[in-house]
Amino acid sequence: MLRGVDQRCEPGSQVDPRVTELRSAVARLRRQLAAHRAEFRDRSIAEEALATLAGLAAADRPDIPMLRRSLLLVAGAIGSVSALGDGLRQLREAVDLFGVSPRA
Hints:
This protein is an all-alpha fold and 104 residues long.
């Protein structure tokens, strides 16, 4: 069962399953994008945003507003590339596991 947004893993325990899912979704979409040989205008934006997401996923407690911002950049950059649609959906679902972004 997935943890709630406010629940944290204890020191020395396993990685939060939401983080594990996020890492998997980012890696999957990065591989799919690398394998997609057709060029499109915003490819570099998608690659940079995915690199940011990979960095955020490396943390045990990723910055949720940054996750959402990077997801929006990826979606805007590759949203019209149907071959990447499934990977993008999986990434969105992984980010959604963290709940809504806290408001400042």
